[in-house]
Amino acid sequence: AETIRAPRLIIDAVDDHGAQLAELRDGLLSRPARIAPKFFYDEQGCALYGAICALSEYYPTRTEIQIYERCRRPIAAQLPPDGQWIDLGCGDGAKARDWLGPARVRRYIGVDFAADWLKTTLAVTEQQFPGVDCLGVVTDFTRPFHLHPVLNDCPDAPPIFFYPGSSIGNFTPEDALSLLRSIRSHLDGDGRLLIGVDLVKDTATVEAAYDDALGVTAAFNRNVLRVANRLLDADFEPHRFDHRAFFNATESRIEMHLAASQGHDVRIGEHRRRFEAGETIVTEYSYKYTPERFCALLAEAGYGNMHYWTDERGWFGVFVAEA
Ligand code: AVJ
């Protein structure tokens, strides 16, 4: 990937806006219609996701943070000191900042799709950790990515890839495998992957987490239609779509859909598409793993020597793996 270097921010030039718009439009015109979850996170979507994380039904965030708080030392003991911390999908960077001290991190690299967020995250991190060299990379790491030139700026600082929040759950196992391999291609001897993964549990608990009583997740789901309207000049009316979330046990995933409540036409830029009553747009898959299945996926991606931590209910898993 060719990169353009600005102070503290590197923008992956391959990642042009046009390709993103084409992906969004093609997904909405295909049958069944789909929207990739990365489009959820405009400013309003990020705020709604923050609200989801505070819901009593949404256990993943607080369970993961609890594991980090309780197991900080043993986890940090598996990570090399003086490394470069690559925060994949860093968002506000809060989860990563809690590690910079305990893991004795030398360099912080925030990676995100959203440049605006990244600037704020870097400013906050730099202010709190003046001794840590902070850098941002704007890229879409759901496509193959190459951070080698950035990492090579600091060749003696082993990379630690941090991918928390069960974001890996948004990928099909096949795509998750490609991403894990892509990460592994950046690791050698001392490098590590630290990843948080939501685990299989009783269906009622998982379904409630994605269909909360206040309708916050429904609002988060429908908000993606406003994103589509803005990016594609479309005329979706969010209230004409119902939020659906259910656990597909065969695939071991939560599926989120938006279902048209009545048949109607939608304009999508220069196109027009009919949605029949009940027809759905797939907006998100959130895969749930057993620890064994996730370790098997890591092994298939070429990782070895894995360590694993969980909470007392076994609801969420934190894994450290070596190349
Ligand atoms: C951010 C992908 C981890 O799958 O749980 C929350 C997003 N979607 N509620 C998840 C989400 C609906 C979330 N991840």
UniProtKB/TrEMBL annotation:
Domain (Histidine-specific methyltransferase SAM-dependent) spans: 23-322
- Pfam name, any one: Methyltransf_33
Enzyme Commission numbers on file? 2.1.1.44
Keyword Transferase belongs to the record: yes
Q: Which InterPro entries match?
A: EgtD, EgtD_Methyltrsf_superfamily, MeTrfase_dom, MeTrfase_EgtD-like, SAM-dependent_MTases_sf
GO terms (molecular function) for this protein are: L-histidine N(alpha)-methyltransferase activity
Keyword list, A-Z: Methyltransferase, Transferase
GO BP of this protein: methylation
Q: Tell me the protein's name.
A: L-histidine N(Alpha)-methyltransferase
- Origin species: Crenobacter oryzisoli
Gene behind this chain? Answer: egtD
